[in-house]
Each structure stands twice: as structure tokens, then as C-alpha cells.
């Protein structure tokens, strides 16, 4: 059986060979409608067509491969989303993703960068699974590199795609305020963490906009883990006077929120009847399986992976350098479930 060709795809999809070339060379955006692109890809899948990558790379001097170097993949609950977003965006533009992990080891990272450069990838997404300021390896050229979920220590040195952590913190407290809560606590993340600090600022923004003041004894930086959330919850909830405790708590993440649920249960405080709880992250296999299911703020890991690839491939398609001053900030959406209701009457 003969190998299917671009001509076969074009005939099945009812388009020109040039249109097929646009799709598989990553130049379809702005030249073909989304429907036409989808029709071409469906025809290619039906025929089992794949472009000759060797011939194409010799002709275009491009490999149609993007490198993705991450600090942690196997141990992160968020890696799958970001990697999937990157792979889907790359495939939609005729590229594949070569994924490597450094495990935060400088030697492994240097080895991975050298491997990607040797393979002449068209560009590199340098990804972190937790938001941080990072020292990017000097061997990564800014003109062909985009950071995902991290920022360079030297502002403006590399383009980046990040989550709107401050906006997410604001959204978290707004959920409680809209439900009628006025006595609201924050169990935030570590004090030296960028994401935790931005979320805390957003929490303060939301209170001020509603004419409320943060109470110092209810504004704690406890950490990221379940046991830290449990201990923090006891500090703000363990009192015999129900008027002396908050009716709502914004948590650093879903693990801290889990600790709050455990502490509340131990104190005989019903969630959500007596206490509403908002998490952060929308962690897979956790947030929607808690009892009650957790209202939380989702981190846009899938969208960050896709946006980083698109930013990189936009520059490749235009044969231009990535602008290192570029920063795309993505919204952190609210995921409403069952852990927030209007505050009840307190005896």
C-alpha cells in the first residue's frame, strides 16, 4: 500500500495542497479558518498521513519539534495539565514536543539543555510546576525561549506566561463576600513564596473593595500542606464563642483547605453550614472528591502550556525573535462546588 501524500489529503478534504502545507508547517493561523484546519486534520488522520519531517526540516531548516524542560513532572499533580496544553497547541501547528525533566538538579538541567540544542529544536518552553522566580540557564537563548509558570530573576530577560495569582486571591475572597460573609480569615502559603504573597495581596484587595478590614489574628501564613492547614485552622476556630471565629476561610491551596475541613470536623463545626471554605489550585483527585466538594480557584496550567507554545511558534512562523519583554498573564477561574454558602445565624 502506498504511503498517503499531501495530495491525497487535499483531495479528501476538498482543499488545495497549499492549504495542507499551511496546516502541517504551522502557518495555518491567519491563513485558514478553524473549520478548514479541522477538516484537513481529520482527512490526514483518516488516511494515516504524516508529513516527511526529514525533507521538511531540510527545506525549512526547522525541526518541527519544540523542547519542553520542566523542573518536576513525575512528582507534580499539575504537570499533566501543562504538558497536555503544550502538546495540543504544538500539534495544532504541526509540531511535536520533546519533554525533559531536570528534577531541579543543575547538572541534569545542563545536560537537558545541551540535548535540546543538539537536536536543533525550534524553541524551548522552560516550565516550572510551582510559580517561582528562576535563574534561567545561560545556554537558553531568550530569542527562542518562553518561560511557563515562572519569571526570570532579571525582569524582562525572557518572555513568560504566568497565572494571575493576585487576581485569583481576589476572586477567592470575593466568592465569600458575594455569599454574604464579612468575618473572613486567610490561611496563606509560605512567606517567601511569590504565588502565596500575590494571593495574599489579592485577598487584601477584595476585603478593601468591600469595605472590610483584615484581622491580624485571622491572617496567617501557614504553608502548603494538610497538617499546616489543620494547625492554622485550630488557631482561628478553636474557641467556645462562635462570634470570635470567622464564618469563611480562604486557603493557600486545596491541601490546606483539606486540613481546615479536618479541623472543623474535629471541633464539631459543620462545613458549609457553620463555616465556608475556599481552596486554591483545583487539584486533580482532591478538590472535587472532598466532602463537601471544595469550591476553589483553578490554576490555568493547561492554558499556560498552550499559551507558551503559541507565543514561541508565533515567533518561529514570523521568523522573528521572541520579545523578552512579553508577559502573558492568564486568569485563574473560580470553580464553584459545595463548600460555600451564606453564613448561618450564630447563637
Summarize the structure.
The protein has 347 residues and is of the alpha/beta class. The chain is built from 11 helices and 12 strands.
How would you describe this structure to a colleague?
This protein has eleven helices and twelve strands. The chain folds into three domains: 6-51, 434 Repressor (Amino-terminal Domain) (Orthogonal Bundle), CATH 1.10.260; 59-163 and 300-330, Response regulator (Rossmann fold), CATH 3.40.50.2300; 165-299, Response regulator (Rossmann fold, 3-Layer(aba) Sandwich), CATH 3.40.50.2300. The chain has 347 residues and is an alpha/beta fold. It is 39% helix and 17% strand. Strands 2-1-3-4-5-11 form a six-stranded parallel sheet. The mean pLDDT is 92. The longest helix has 17 residues, at 301-317. The radius of gyration is 24 Å and the shape is elongated.
- The helix count comes to 11
Mean pLDDT: 92
Radius of gyration: 24 Å
Strand content: 15-25%
Count of spatially separate domains? 3
The biggest sheet amounts to: 6 strands, parallel
Please count the beta strands (DSSP E, at least 2 residues each): 12
Instruction: Determine the fraction of residues in helical runs and give it as a percent range.
Output: 25-40%
> What letter string, H or E per element, gives the SSE order?
HHHHEHEHEEEHEHEHEHEEHEE
Going across the major beta sheet, what is the strand order? Answer: 2-1-3-4-5-11
CATH class of the largest domain: Alpha Beta
- Which secondary-structure class do the elements indicate? alpha/beta
> Which residue ranges are poorly predicted, with pLDDT under 50 across at least 5 consecutive positions?
none
For the termini, the CA-CA separation is 80 Å
